[in-house]
Structures are given as structure tokens and as C-alpha cells.
Amino acid sequence: MWLKTRCPRCGSEVRLEYADSSIYDAACPQCGGEFCLFVRKPKFEVLFDMGAQALLDGYAREAVASFAAAQERFFEFYIRAASLERATGTEQSMEEAASAFESTWKHVVSQTERQTGMLALAYLMREGRPLSS
User: Fold this and answer.
1) Which residue stretches of 29-59 are H helix?
2) Distances (CA, A) of 100 to 14, 69, 95, 125, 126
3) For position 4, what pLDDT does the model report?
4) Which helix (H) or strand (E) holds 38?
């Protein structure tokens, strides 16, 4: 999968291969200028953008895979945010809350159905009403 950006010197399009890192060292193929790109979007947004681009480019299977991964990363983001928000009014430090989340998340990281269940519970606990389908 590719990220598209523009060279800050000449403005030409530069394609970068997607990596889990948020920091990319790049060189422009047109002018040879080197630059560093820092992606400040959450992972689910990057994956969604890649899915949309794949769909526009005619790669339906890749788009579906990117959208599914984006959905899972969004679930993780929401559940993490809800659990950390819940810890703010307690004696527990943010580091302890984050560590507790990580140790719990490892049990569901590769199981979409369990992640969906955790999302439904986190939503119920945060919003006070069930997640509507």
C-alpha cells in the first residue's frame, strides 16, 4: 500500500510505501530533494484513506482489507480512549491504566468478534445506552 504526498520543493507527487512507523524519510524522484514526512493521523484514518484510494484505483479486494483493518483499529482507539477516560477520576495513573489496557487487549488483538464485544461494552459503559446496529 502506498501513501501519496507532495515534495515541499517542487510540488511533484511522491509515493511512499506504507509502514507502521509514522515517520518517513523520502526523496523526490523529480528534483532529488530529501524531506521527512510525519503522519499525524491515527492509524485507523490512514488505513481508511488507503482503502478509499484503493477503491478509486479499482482495487476492490485491497480496499475491503484496508477498510476492515481501519474498522478494527478504530475499535481499539475507542476502547483505549474510553478506558483511559474512565481512569482519569481514580487513583490509578495513566501509565497503569495504559498498561492494564495493553495486557487486556492482547487477549483480543487477533479476534474481531471479541473486539466488537469489547466495543459494545465500552460504549454501554461510557454512553449509558447500547450500541445501535
Assistant:
1) 43-56
2) 40, 23, 9, 17, 18
3) 83
4) strand 34-38
- Three-class SS state of 5: strand
Q: Which residues neighbour 96 within 8 Å (Cβ) at sequence distance 6 or greater?
A: 87
d(CA 48, CA 39): 14
Q: Which three cell numbers stand for residue 38?
A: 510525519
CA angle 63, 71, 119 (to 5 degrees): 165
Number of other CB atoms surrounding residue 87 within 10 Å: 17
Range list of β-strands (E), 63-115: none
pLDDT single digits (tens) 60-118: 999 999 999 999 999 999 999 999 998 888 888 899 999 999 999 999 999 999 999 99
The CA-atom distances, in angstroms, between 29 and each of 6, 8, 37, 55, 111 are 11, 12, 15, 26, 41
Closest C-alpha to 31, from 61, 51, 2, 11: 11
Q: For the full predicted model, state whether its pTM sits above 0.70.
A: yes
